[in-house]
Amino acid sequence: MFARRTPAPPVPPAGLPPDFTSDDIDPEEGDLSPNSERDEEDEEEEVEEEEEEEEEEADDASYSTDKNKPGSPSLVGLKEIGNLASWTVSTAKPGNGIDQLRDEDTSLFWQSDGPQPHHINIHFAKRVKVKRIRIFLDFENDESYTPTKMSILSGTGYHDLIEVTKLDLERPTGWVEVPLDDVHVDGELRTFLIQVAIHANHQNGKDTHVRGLQIFAAEPAAFDIGEIPFSNSNLMTEFELR
User: Fold this and answer.
1) In degrees to the nearest 10, what's the CA dihedral of 137, 139, 142, 144?
2) Which residues are 86's β-sheet partners?
3) Predicted confidence (pLDDT) per residue in 71-91, tens digit
4) How many beta carbons lie within 10 A of that of residue 106, not counting itself?
5) 175-208, pLDDT tens digit by residue?
6) Fewer CB within 10 Å: C terminus or N terminus of the chain?
7) Looking at the whole model, is its pTM more than 0.70?
8) Whole-number Å distance between alpha carbons of 123 and 154
9) How far apart are the first and last CA of the chain?
């Protein structure tokens, strides 16, 4: 009679621990448990990374929102009209002038280069109704360059400017709303010329930084051609073409 041979134990696939046995095979998954565990760990790590990325994106979005309008009222129904005006400043350091002041990137700024008070002049070709004015200041980055006392003047020209409001600030960071509620019964400033005057800076700083200045008017109501109370076809066609 021949002796019965004992089958040799299975050789674990490459990459598995030496103590691997057939009991480590997951019959439901049809996979090897060590690999399955690794896959599960990898999936958990991927999920954690995705959650961290989502949190970072949410933080970035929140920062962006705060950067553009922290605590500010909604801009719905308003239109920025600064592009309709001619802008001048009293003085400017080379490379930090009106272009930087008007740029949407608030890491850029206008820097004055002369004695106080410093002025920003916004001159419109025709009278406008200003609903809101806001100014971007950043004490955390600018420190002694940050304005603390400002005033807003208005008129038809430089000869008849009158002060319409004052601002007393302490470490402002972000968009600062200029109060216009008391300038007229409807809260709109009717003007040709707006002058922003900076009288003092934090820690008695000489020159100043302003990182943004925006002028808003009410958005014109949408025009519905169907509301015209006449229906001459030639006139309507000509009107649509225009």
Assistant:
1) 110
2) 123
3) 457 788 899 999 999 999 999
4) 16
5) 999 999 888 878 899 999 999 999 999 999 999 9
6) N
7) no
8) 10
9) 110
Amino acid at 188: E
As a whole number of angstroms, the distance between CA 49 and CA 115 comes to: 53
- 200: β partners: 149
58 to 54, 55, 61, 63: CA distances (angstroms):
6, 5, 5, 9
The greatest distance separating any two alpha carbons of the chain, rounded to the nearest whole angstrom, comes to 126
Instruction: Give the amino acid at 196.
Output: V
CA dist 48 and 55 (Å) reads 10
Distant-in-sequence, close-in-space partners of 178: CB < 8 Å, separation ≥ 6:
132, 133, 134, 135, 152, 165, 167
Residue-level pLDDT at 231: 58
**Residue 186 amino acid letter:** D
Encode the chain in three state secondary structure: CCCCCCCCCCCCCCCCCCCCCHHHEECCCCEEHHHHHHHHHHHHHHHHHHHHHHHHHHHHHHHHHHHHCCCCCCCCCEEECHHHEEEEECCCECCECHHHHHCCCCCCCEECCCCCCEEEEEEEEEEEEECEEEEEEEHHHHHHHCEEEEEEEEECCHHHCEEEEEEECCCCEEEEEECCCCCCCCCCEEEEEEEEEEEEEHHHCCCCEECEEEEEEECCCCCCHHHCCCCCHHHHHHHHHC
Among 145-149, 182-186, 234-238, which is the least confidently predicted range? 234-238
| Cβ-based burial of 3 (10 A; exposed 0-12, middle 13-18, buried ≥19) | exposed
